[in-house]
TrEMBL record:
Gene3D superfamilies with a match to the protein in the record: Leucyl/phenylalanyl-tRNA-protein transferase, C-terminal domain (3.40.630.70), Leucyl/phenylalanyl-tRNA-protein transferase, N-terminal domain (3.30.70.3550)
PANTHER family assigned: LEUCYL/PHENYLALANYL-TRNA--PROTEIN TRANSFERASE, LEUCYL_PHENYLALANYL-TRNA--PROTEIN TRANSFERASE
Protein's name according to its UniProt entry: Leucyl/phenylalanyl-tRNA--protein transferase
Organism (species): Jiangella anatolica
Gene Ontology BP annotations: protein catabolic process
HAMAP family linked to this entry: Leu_Phe_trans (MF_00688)
Length: 237
């Protein structure tokens, strides 16, 4: 099971306001990150100087993007793509987050500090990657996020730009939904932060923040899905 880190030394801000941006500052210690997710917050640097991510910001979108586990839209072509890849969990977490952090990607926001923080969460057993591999052993795409009880908080996804990487990130998402639907899925919550047109095409919907927080509280009381409960935590460095 995941290793519970020392608690955060920060008092978390209220999410009672209307703005998506809730607060600045604090740190990226494991205890702070877990406390944030348990209270409906997540970190994302905000660009303020020469286009560089300089200030750590904490967000709680209103409305919040979630993917209902029974609402994933899988087209015929995507279903065919699922047969082209092998799905693995946590076999290349660092490679997945590095690919997601590629600065050449539009809207790149994953800083070195963010990457290190989630790698540490991974070693403690809280952060996970779902990966799509080609038959000849190439990492074609994947996603990563944080699993706490029945919550999976998706952070980012990627696919290789070459032709063999087509649909790989969506295939990883299909696999994630199947993992979350395994063994008593009622109450589990797949958080994608913000809804976008692309995510809406896959079944993502937006719900008011109070509804999200209510569903979050119920999800946190649930056990981890089997796909993540069986992955042993590693000692943090």
């Amino acid at each position: 099971m995941p290793v519970e880190p020392p608690p955060t030394r920060w008092e978390l801000p209220s999410t009672s306001g209307d703005d998506d941006l809730v607060a600045f500052g604090a740190d990226l210690e494991p205890g702070t990150l877990l406390a944030a997710y348990r209270n409906g917050l997540f970190p994302m640097p905000i660009d303020q100087l020469l286009g560089r991510a300089t200030d750590l910001a904490w967000w709680s979108p209103n409305p919040r993007g979630v993917l209902p586990l029974g609402g994933l839209k899988v087209s015929r072509s995507l279903r065919q793509s699922t047969r082209r890849f092998e799905i693995r969990v946590d076999s290349a977490f660092a490679d997945v987050i590095d690919a997601c952090a590629d600065p050449s990607r539009p809207g790149a926001w994953i800083s070195t500090d963010i990457r290190r923080a989630y790698e540490r969460l991974h070693r403690l057993g809280w952060a996970h990657s779902i990966e799509a591999w080609t038959p000849d052993g190439r990492l074609a795409g994947g996603l990563y996020g944080v699993a706490i009880g029945g919550l999976f908080a998706g952070e980012s996804m990627f696919h290789a730009r070459q032709r063999w990487g087509r649909d790989a990130s969506k295939v990883a998402l299909v696999a994630l939904v199947e993992m979350l639907r395994a063994e008593h899925p009622v109450g589990r919550l797949l958080d994608v932060q913000w809804g976008t047109r692309h995510l809406a095409s896959l079944g993502v919907v937006e719900i008011p923040r109070p509804e999200y927080l209510s569903r979050l509280r119920r999800a946190l009381e649930l056990p981890l899905p089997p796909a993540f409960a069986g992955h042993a935590a590693h000692k943090a460095k």
